[in-house]
Amino acid sequence: MKVYNLELRCWNIYSNGTHPIETTKGFNDALQWASENGYTTFSVPPGEYLIAKGDQGAENSRINLVSDMIFLSSDETIFQKETNGYEIYSLLYVGPNIKNVTIKGGTFRGDRETHDYSQKGPSTSGTHEWGNGIDVVGAENITIDAVKLEKFTGDGIEVKGSTVTGSTITEASVEAGGIDDEGQPVGNTGKIRTKDRKVTNFDNIAYQEHRNIHFWLPEGIVPGSKVDVYYYRADGSFIKVDKQIKYYSGESIIPQGADYFRAVFEAPSIKNFKVTRMTVDISRNVVIKNADIGYNRRQGISLVGSDGVTITNNDIHHIGGVAPGSGIDIEPGFYQGRNTIITDNRFMDNRLQIILAYGENARIEGNTFKQAIKGVGVYSYKEFTGEVTVKNNSFDGSTLTLQSHNAEVIHNQFKNSELKLVGNGSVLDEAELEDTSLSIGSGENQKISNVAIKHNGIVPGVLYLGDTPVHIENLDIQAQTKGKGLIFGQGNNESMYNNLTVADVDKKGTVLPAGTYNNCSFEAGELTINRAGKYTMNDCTVKDTGKLVTVLSTYGKPEVLINKSTLEITGNIGYGAAVYILGAQNVELVDSKVFAINNTYKAPLIKAGPYGAPKPTNVFGFSIKNSEIRTKAGVPVIDTLNAGTDAPPYTIRDNKIYNGTLHLKANDVNVNNQFIQE
């Protein structure tokens, strides 16, 4: 390692916070000289260096780093951006084709507190949200280590791409038809193909280094369609095909020896067709670690065209002032934003903590998220695809919402939060939730396992189940809802709940969503079934002091099966019934036990039909078979007398009834029931 210790006087650089023009020029001249003379470390002495505002976005407005260099500063080194009124600026710039750079140490400070926000350019919005600390633009193998970035009008760090070259393909350059797998033109209704090498060639010298094609801004295509790209040598011989390339984020790699390509688009005709083909340069293999990034106005870190970014062991805090206000935002626009690792960071009081707007493949692991006022912790949109993993994180006042499909949420802790899984195939495993609501079942085939929820009624609602199938295994809810609600949602006939435990100190009761419940336990007050659907309980326990299950027909005709389960009343039933069936397509109680050994009220344990004057029935099927029912002497255990004027026969058979009596209508089937007095 060859170290150049920066000689301030030699380069007319001032370390007392003055002379920004001379200082900025001196840094850039010195870096070029050091690179040309074989130095690999550029060491900056302590001091405060004022970096010129220069011309907006120009080289004289920033320090421009060079390849193969460590830019080294101490904790006593400050780089201060000169106060300006520009909408766009950067303090340190790592541009296209720059490789193998490390930025280590130092404080980089923006002009947020003194900035002039009044100016607006002809093609900008006037929000002044693009004043950045470090810009990495189309660079490769970049490490940012142990820096402090604060008070910028935009982002602490922006990692992004740039356009290299391209052309516009219009209807003049296409014809009807497709191309077969041998690269030969064929007739194909509903497809059009390029015909003009002038707009699809690789003559530009830029293609010697940049070997990619993207397709942007399509017009006249079939919505949701993709592009097939065929490559040819200069003599017209076929090389290969890349099929089904997405618009915008999709990429086709140009093979060696290719002279031009032909593309096939799904379009009804060539009329009004247009697409831009671009070659881009995104930033690759960037590491941001051990940094303190805070008090920036727009973002902590923006990834706007990147592949392979690792963000680890940073403090990212107090970001906000102009939208979005994220600690980290992956929002690559037309570029790619893929393969991002975010580990072991500490996020504190950012307006938003992490946003995955679009892109692909992100791992968020070992981070802590904390917000004094509950806000967005991690949010992924459905446009963010590929592997999305959220693992071993702690959320305190920070929510997690994942619209991405097949997202994995593993071994996380939540406090005073919200957890929403929206995407299809989402997995939630090994989670601890305190005063945190869980919302699932909005996407298909979600799997939930090994989740413990403790809820103290600080916010309403503990569990929301949407109308798509879910599979739940080992979910334990211990709540004190304070009457704010426990379980909400319709559920789905195909949903499966295994080893679900629900306990509510207040016992205010809850709605039971549709699905099959295996080996579940409820001590939450009355369970209400009030929607159409299939409800099955196998080997379950329902316990309460007074009410157990009420089945209504308010929103349809539910079908209910209670099998090999135990229903237990520990006190007096009170008015109504322990199991009160007011409306259902069918209710079956089979091979189960109903206990009310402390009940002294004369209200029935199980009642089909309302009190009051007879009405047309809303209970279209009802049976109790092979079950054991225990109560006090003289208490009616089953009452069907007021089931309705046109109620069909109900079946009560092969049951053991201790101490109780039956009050059945005339057409009911009463067979082989044993009455035992104790």
Automatic annotation (TrEMBL):
The record, for SUPFAM superfamilies, names: Pectin lyase-like (SSF51126)
Q: Which domain of life is it from?
A: Bacteria
The record places domain Right handed beta helix at 279-414
* Compositional bias (Basic and acidic residues): 109-118
What InterPro entries is this protein classified in?
Beta_helix, PbH1, Pectin_lyas_fold, Pectin_lyase_fold/virulence
What Gene3D superfamilies does UniProt report for this protein, alphabetically?
Answer: Single-stranded right-handed beta-helix, Pectin lyase-like (2.160.20.10)
Q: Name one Pfam family in it.
A: Beta_helix
Disordered, as annotated region: 109-131
Name the record gives this protein: Right handed beta helix domain-containing protein
Q: Which organism is it from?
A: Domibacillus mangrovi
